[in-house]
Amino acid sequence: MIENLLAIDIGSGTQDVLVYESNKNIENNIKMILPSQTQIVAKKIKDLTINKKDIFLHGTTMGGGASSKAIQNHVQAGYKVFATKKAALTIKDNLDKVRKKGIEIVDTPPKNASSIELKDIDIEGLKIALKQFGVNLPRNFVFAVQDHGFSPKESNRLFRFYHWRDFLLSGGNIRDLIYDQDTIPHYFTRMKALYDITKTLADNIWFMDTGSAAIMGALEDKVVNSKINDTGSGVLVNIGNQHTIAFLIAKNRILGVFEHHTSKLTEQKLYEYLKYFITSKITNDQVLSDGGHGCMVLPEVKSYNFDFIAITGPQRQVGENIGYLAVPHGDMMLSGPYGLVRSVLNLKGRGLNG
């Protein structure tokens, strides 16, 4: 039986942490909103750029974003960047493309280069922090990351959406959005890297996509759950710091997926996209050509009503006038971790308390 869980939603801006203890009301569980590892790594690189130091990247594959931009800025400033193969895959899935960016792939640390470890999570740091407050780290972990999938030869936007297409065509069961170490798709290298660095520290580890976790967390909001349940239908939208994802859900099945970059959306543009998404009047190519990831809707959507729209995510102000602002257990920033815990407990035939 799972009594305690360390649930972490690892985003581009923050890592949202929940230490779930089943014997407490959910509101009394420990919660932390911390800078994400890509932000922490980016700051270290920026400091070394200011100090005119070459850098050596090692560790494993992690999320890019801020860290990748800082790496590129370091090269453009005229300083050297060395990286192991695993670390280099953080920047691009194709190592030749990494080299073309001016990064040298090496096996050993060069002399006089400052070392920076790449990893999506610092479990030891969390363990030390919690210990200061007399809290032991749980032996069960569940993590959310946005994994585009390993795609060295084509756009990772295209490749990521192949995953959503296959998920929809395989039935779109909302409870199939969580993986353990045996069921992680082979192309999700970021999840696999997370497993490799945490497997000796936990009894059980599960993984989800950040968008999926946030959507599952939104279902912990009582208003949302009353509309979108075993018999109901609606639209759930997570507006993250980098990506926006929307699901058409009916009777616990996902019948449509839309994904775009948040920076390219205004409230009016998102409203128009959702209007055409619900009515199946937008194509995958239209979203791609606008710089998004894609869109797919199954024919069954015509059998359901999608008038109810719920919005969550750290950039939810972009859609605050479009739909209901979901606040699961009174804390929108914990939508991801609540979704992670909900999904694990669903596997065990249980639900969150509170």
From TrEMBL:
Pfam families: DUF1786 (PF08735). InterPro entries: DUF1786_pyruvate_format-lyase. This is Pyruvate formate lyase-activating protein. It comes from Natranaerobius trueperi.
